[in-house]
Amino acid sequence: MLIFPAPYVKFGARYAEIRNEIRGLQSDHDNFVSMMCEIARKIQEKKYLLAGLECSISSHSNDSELMEYFMCNKNLSLIRVSGTMMEFVAHGYADIYDADGFEQYVGNHNGYMYNNLNSGITKGQMEKLYRAIFGDCRYKLRICAAYTADMRTGLKAFQHYTFPPESRTYLPNPHIQIYGCIGTYAGRFQEYMQKKDYVGAIDQAVVSARNLNFYDSTVISAFAKALSCATISCIEKPDGTLLTPKEAFLELEGGDTGCQGPSF
Question: Which residue, among 131, 144, 125, has the nearest Cα to 250 in the 3D structure?
Fold first, then answer.
């Protein structure tokens, strides 16, 4: 059995320590370089996006108006441009619905508005939340949807879309996210296009994202499940504070949500 003198043991420990430090620094360096490359890639991607948008819109009349609309409308997030096609996300509140349809079905706890609820939520709690959003408007529900708008082929909805970070406090509209249906808004888009009203055409997507049809049992069943199970802060109070559905249930029951103010 070999026994090394103390100086050699000390040297070996220091040697191993320095090697570990080098590995750590190298890892930090590699991560930094990777991060810089990713930032450079995103910068170039945005430059291509802007150039593509300018090129696409310049081939149509009202080009500056449409460009300004996308740049200034906080409810729109432009994702990609390719030729005459634009991919974007529309954000808004779920504030376009038939109030009579809502009242007709909200009181029926055996109906489709209460299908597939989160197992931790009672039907009574869900009705309170429904009424707080769509009845007395104590809350607003943030909602979003993704589309492609092609000046040649029309407006289409994305299904099962992976939304960008800016959509993290918005609930995807199930009519569009799950079923890819935009109803009559596709026809309205084409009507605006024929009039060369491109801003009006794109605005049809914003309107369709905000729409809920309480007469559509399939969609509202999916909506009930999505809302009751959501863990995102998609419910907005009048002061701007955002709540998760669970926090809203607690507040409606008179409990403490733990929220201290607006959360974005």
Answer: 125
Q: What is the pLDDT of residue 263?
A: 36
Q: What distance in Å separates the CA atoms of residue 246 and residue 237, rounded to the nearest whole number?
A: 14
99 and 11 in a common domain: no
How far is residue 235's CA from residue 227's CA, in Å, rounded to a whole number? 10
* Residue 146 neighbours by CB under 8 Å, 6+ apart: 79, 87, 88, 89, 90, 157, 158, 161, 163, 176, 177
The answer to whether residues 41 and 160 belong to one domain is no
Q: What is the pTM of this model?
A: 0.71
The yes-or-no verdict on residue 229 having pLDDT over 90 is: yes
In a domain, 261, yes or no: no
Q: How many domains does the chain have?
A: 2
What's the token pair of residue 131? Answer: 């009424």
Residue 180 has pLDDT above 90, yes or no: no
- Biggest alpha carbon distance in the chain? 93
Amino acid at 118: N
Q: How far apart are CA 212 and CA 158, in angstroms?
A: 17
Beta strands in 106-166 (DSSP E): 140-150, 154-157
Q: Are residues 185 and 79 in the same domain?
A: yes
Domain that includes residue 131, residue range: 61-252
Residue with tokens 């959501």: 230
CA 100 to chain centre: 28
Summarised one tens digit per residue, pLDDT across range 67-124 is 677 778 888 998 888 777 889 999 999 999 999 999 999 999 999 999 989 998 999 9
Instruction: Report pLDDT digits (tens) over 1-27.
Output: 545 455 555 667 777 888 888 888 888
Q: Measured on CA atoms in the order 151, 157, 67, 92, is the torsion positive or negative?
A: positive
Mark whether 112 and 241 lie in a shared domain.
yes
Going by C-alpha positions, the residue among 186, 164, 167 that lies closest to residue 175 is 186
